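Quick review question:
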């Protein structure tokens, strides 16, 4: 082998947060000022008509979730909560009544000089301030009365601040089955004080909605950060009416906000498997086209109806990141419709083109009558299908079996599974991310599949996927290695991973102990000028195999009990090698396949003492990339042929070799592959 000048790489850079920015998620090149002045369509819980109620009754109603509303005291059947207070209106008998028709409800207000609360078939918790305490709570049982303020002490004044229903005899109405055409539309309750939005199920475990729904100030959605939402959030899916039973109510456990648009992916605590997610279109909306929208927000007459409405709409201005939307009368887009899906029909099915962000809210309940504009603004999603898929891939189910990963023509990672026990392949390649890769390898430790990759920037990255769980984000392997060209990884002891990289000036090694949670540092092992590399393990020894610049095959051992050996040529004098893979059966038998100048070659080594066989030409294929994995006593070889499609053949060491077959999925343009098997 030719040697180059030795040189150490400094391990100085901090761990990168992510590998790359997905191509589809990059900020737009054009400034987009469409819709910037339009108010947010997030339901903030502001009580409709509060100013008029204050003027007429002297009651300041501030916010709520719509479950408690002001009612007519002259009709006893219309209310479940009655408050007695010294009011400015002497004709009302000091009585203020509230309807609480459902099993829950919240209302914040200011009622000075309150002195008694009575309930009917509801238990409530009241928050108040008195002369003695700035804030306190008191519980009133169903069909009970409790005195506060002057009722308890003639000299004590009480200001009632909040009411919350804590129990109810109300029985929810049985819901009707959701319309399959809109069942993906989701109602979101953010906290329990009145903030609500709409969303779209784009994956069994992910909702796409407006980022502003989770912002402290919806007008400034850029403050939303990744991770768990600040307040408990519940998604209701598969119901056309949220006040009924049926469908699913699932907690949101994670937010993944888009960097520059009013969009966020929200992860469900558990997947919803009986509702078809909506597909994200890759075709841009066109001005003047007809679209469909959906939301659970306000209407012209209802504050928080919780009932799905589906206004048709037409587009006008289409800009780089969003488009203006005009509902078709009598449809409206109001508060609570933020995050709602906007779609067209493609191939007979809904295809998402945008997410509602803002609305002028003319004719919506609670909007000033002087506001006559009814238009809305939606954030485009058609150019973010890759970003959506990048997030979705984190919860793509990782099933026991064999996992194939490939680099597509654009540098993205794709996955395909096969279970050799059942003989069942996955239905097709699934895009896992939008990263820019040029080399890929994989191993399994326990129930965790670990991917290691070389980016187009020459750095080394890693991400993990737990069987039955989801994928982590890509992160740079510690040490800031640069100039990487190719990569291999192997496992000893069940949890120790050894990564070798062909660098700019030789081979480098780094080890990870996943039990201790520690990485070593990148260590330059030699000054070789290698072209391809792979590895396999017997016992506590990693056997590294490489194609050198002379196109011959070499090997060296890393025995983790005694140390590293030197490079030696694999017996047989094979020349013209281009790519290489290796696998192990029986604990000690290594099988090496090489893409040669005129086909694929195989040689086996028994490290238990019988040594190497001879190179055997297996076929006359013209392959471009190769990898392998083992189940039982069978080595499964996968290769990218000259047509850039994936093919596979098995070497069953009990019965012999099979022929090449095209792998399911029909993908082409593949540039690199790796495979690993998990239990």
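Suggested answer, residue by residue:
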């Amino acid at each position: 082998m030719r040697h180059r000048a030795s040189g150490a790489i400094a391990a100085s850079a901090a761990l990168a947060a992510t590998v790359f920015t997905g191509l589809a998620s990059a900020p737009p090149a054009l400034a987009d000022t469409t819709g910037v002045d339009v108010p947010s369509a997030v339901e903030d819980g502001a009580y409709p008509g509060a100013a008029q109620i204050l003027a007429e009754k002297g009651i300041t109603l501030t916010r709520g979730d719509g479950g408690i509303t002001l009612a007519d005291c002259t009709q006893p059947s219309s209310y479940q909560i009655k408050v007695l207070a010294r009011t400015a209106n002497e004709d009302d008998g000091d009585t203020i009544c509230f309807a609480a028709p459902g099993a829950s409800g919240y209302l914040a207000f200011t009622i000075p000089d309150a002195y008694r609360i009575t309930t009917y078939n509801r238990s409530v918790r009241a928050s108040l301030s008195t002369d003695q305490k700035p804030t306190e709570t008191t519980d009133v049982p169903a069909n009970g009365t409790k005195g506060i303020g002057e009722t308890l002490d003639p000299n004590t004044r009480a200001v009632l601040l909040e009411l919350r229903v804590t129990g109810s005899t109300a029985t929810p109405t049985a819901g009707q089955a959701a319309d399959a055409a809109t069942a993906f539309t989701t109602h979101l309750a953010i906290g329990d004080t009145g903030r609500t939005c709409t969303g779209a199920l784009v994956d069994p475990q992910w909702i796409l909605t407006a980022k502003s729904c989770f912002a402290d100030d919806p007008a400034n959605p850029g403050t939303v950060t990744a991770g768990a939402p600040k307040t408990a959030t519940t998604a209701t899916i598969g119901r056309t009416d949220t006040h009924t039973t049926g469908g699913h109510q699932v907690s949101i456990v994670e937010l993944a906000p888009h960097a520059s648009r009013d969009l966020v992916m929200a992860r469900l605590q558990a997947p919803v498997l009986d509702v078809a997610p909506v597909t994200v279109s890759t075709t841009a909306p066109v001005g003047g086209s007809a679209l469909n929208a959906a939301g659970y927000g306000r209407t012209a007459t209802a504050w928080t109806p919780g009932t799905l409405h589906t206004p048709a709409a037409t587009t006008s201005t289409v800009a780089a990141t969003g488009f203006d939307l005009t509902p078709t009368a009598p449809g409206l887009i109001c508060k609570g419709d933020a995050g709602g899906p906007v779609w067209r029909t493609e191939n007979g099915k809904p295809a998402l083109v945008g997410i509602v962000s803002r609305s002028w809210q003319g004719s919506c309940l609670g909007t000033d009558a002087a506001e006559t504009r009814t238009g809305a603004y939606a954030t485009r999603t058609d150019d973010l299908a890759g970003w959506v898929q990048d997030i979705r891939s984190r919860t793509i189910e990782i099933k026991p079996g064999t996992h194939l990963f490939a680099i597509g023509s654009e540098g993205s990672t794709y996955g395909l599974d096969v279970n050799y026990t059942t003989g069942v392949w996955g239905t097709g390649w699934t895009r896992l991310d939008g990263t820019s890769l040029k080399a890929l390898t994989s191993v399994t430790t326990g129930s965790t599949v670990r991917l290691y990759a070389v980016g187009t920037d020459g750095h080394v990255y890693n991400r993990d996927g737990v069987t039955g769980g989801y994928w982590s984000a890509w992160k740079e392997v510690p040490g800031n290695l640069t100039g990487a060209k190719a990569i291999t990884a192997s496992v000893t002891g069940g949890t120790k991973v050894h990564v070798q990289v062909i660098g700019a000036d030789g081979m480098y090694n780094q080890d990870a102990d996943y039990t201790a949670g520690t990485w070593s540092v990148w260590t330059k092992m030699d000054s070789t000028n290698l072209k391809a590399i792979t590895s396999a393990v017997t016992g506590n020894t990693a056997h590294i195999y490489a194609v050198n610049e002379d196109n011959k095959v070499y090997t060296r051992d890393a025995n983790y009990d005694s140390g590293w050996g030197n490079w030696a040529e694999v017996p047989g004098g094979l020349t013209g090698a281009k790519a290489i893979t290796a696998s192990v059966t029986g604990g000690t038998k290594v099988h090496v396949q090489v893409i040669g100048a005129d086909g694929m070659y195989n040689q086996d080594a028994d490290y238990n003492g019988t040594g190497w066989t001879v190179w055997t030409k297996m076929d006359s294929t013209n392959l471009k990339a190769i990898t392998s994995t083992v189940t039982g006593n069978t080595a499964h070889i996968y290769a990218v042929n000259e047509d850039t499609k994936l093919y596979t053949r098995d070497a069953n060491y009990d019965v012999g070799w099979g022929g090449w077959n095209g792998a399911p999925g029909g993908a082409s343009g593949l540039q690199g592959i790796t495979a690993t098997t998990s239990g």
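Why it works: The CA atoms of residues 450 and 547 lie 24 Å apart. Residues 1-33 have pLDDT under 50 and may be disordered.
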